[in-house]
Amino acid sequence: MNTTLKRWHVGSPSDEVIPDGVVAFGSAEAAEAAVRVPRVVGFHQAMAEPLPRAEEVHIGLPTYRGKSFQPVLAWLAATRLAAPGARVVWQVDKQQGPDSVRRLLESLGWRIEQVKRGRQRLLSGIAPAEAELPEPRHFTARVAGAELTFAADYGVFSPGEVDAGTALLLEAALRCDPVESVADIGTGYGPLAIGLLRGGIARRALVTDVDCVALWLARHNARLNGTEIEARWTPDPGTVEATPLTVCNVPTHIDAEATRLLMDRLLERAKTGRLLAVVHASLESRYVAHFRRAGMDPSRFPGPAHVVLGAGA
Questions:
Q1: How many domains does one find in the chain?
Q2: Contact present, 21 and 70 (Cβ < 8 Å)
Q3: Is 133 within a domain?
Q4: Whether 159 and 248 share a structural domain
Q5: 264-288 pLDDT per residue, tens
Q6: Are residues 160 and 292 in the same domain?
Q7: What share of the chain has pLDDT > 70, as a percent?
Q8: Residues 6+ apart with CB under 8 A from 214
Q9: Within a domain: residue 106?
Q10: pLDDT band at 1 (very low <50, low <70, confident <90, very high)
Q11: Which domain holds residue 70?
Q12: What is the pTM of this model?
């Protein structure tokens, strides 16, 4: 492939070096980069499709993805981003263990030089001509009456099992009448959407998440389990086409304003279709208040620690 870019940056670029293209790990990172960078793609997109190669690639090593993510980034740089002979610069903080990162890269065939810059170490080198994409960690669970396998790794939520909230939401949604399409808002690695496809509740699934790594895993899991999903990387459910059914495992780690915006958008969807949203039982009254402000009295499907709130047709 012809080199058409001077520099790719994986992660949030620093103010010191403005790249021609950014591979973003999340939607907030992408929005920030889009203000000053002409080309921004999500990590899930970069892993799936050919991209123009660059003469130089900078990688900001994320702190929350684990060491097993480093070979994935090495594969991405070698096979998708770097032109033959291009220099790849890894930006590694002291607490991330620059020496262990260097040894890992060298074991994968990289030639590495190390330069110190304050608390940060720059590992600079040439990617090998060939690279192998490692398999993420998997687990198997019974979902919608079938044994399904899910890749769940690299810092995603509930990596070892389908969490209790999602399991309850799936149980409630499987009682719905079949529909043409479902929107899974905040899909993670995809067990809910995949379960609804495999369970015959929906023929088509549109999924969203703010985490592009989760979307990459969700796509992988859909193929692994004989289904297909359509992925959108956005925090706004309003950007997704109307569907007869919308499901959401509501995140509780976001602030009050972000929660209000999310619930407002979800409840807009309940005006044209059915909405099912799962929350922790201890927070039920807080979320019921959002429904009532929108003029809706939600139905309840309780579980041991969570409750599914429903509204709409």
A1: 2
A2: no
A3: no
A4: yes
A5: 999 999 999 999 999 999 999 999 9
A6: yes
A7: 99
A8: 156, 157, 187, 188, 189
A9: yes
A10: very low
A11: 3-126
A12: 0.95
User: At residue 14, what is the residue type?
Assistant: S
Asked, for residue 98, whether it belongs to a domain, the answer is yes
253 close to 229: Cβ distance less than 8 angstroms: no
In order of 23, 126, 133, the CA distances from 1 in angstroms are 18, 17, 20
* Burial of 2 (C-beta count, 10 Å sphere; 0-12/13-18/19+): exposed
Residues 6+ apart with CB under 8 A from 59: 9, 10, 11, 73, 77, 88, 89, 90, 91
SS3 content of the chain, % helix, strand, coil (to 5): 35, 35, 35
Cα angle vertex 224, ends 221, 225, to 5°? Answer: 90
Structure tokens at 217: 């895993």
Would you state the structure tokens that stand for residue 162, as one six-digit string?
Answer: 């389908």
Which pair of structure tokens corresponds to residue 76? Answer: 């991405």
Residue 179: what residue type?
A: V
**Residue 14 counted as domain residue:** yes
Task: Look up the CATH number of the domain holding residue 228.
Answer: 3.40.50.150
End-of-domain residue from the set 95, 126, 157: 126
Q: CB–CB of 58/13 below 8 Å?
A: yes
Q: Which of 79, 97, 126 is the last residue of a domain?
A: 126
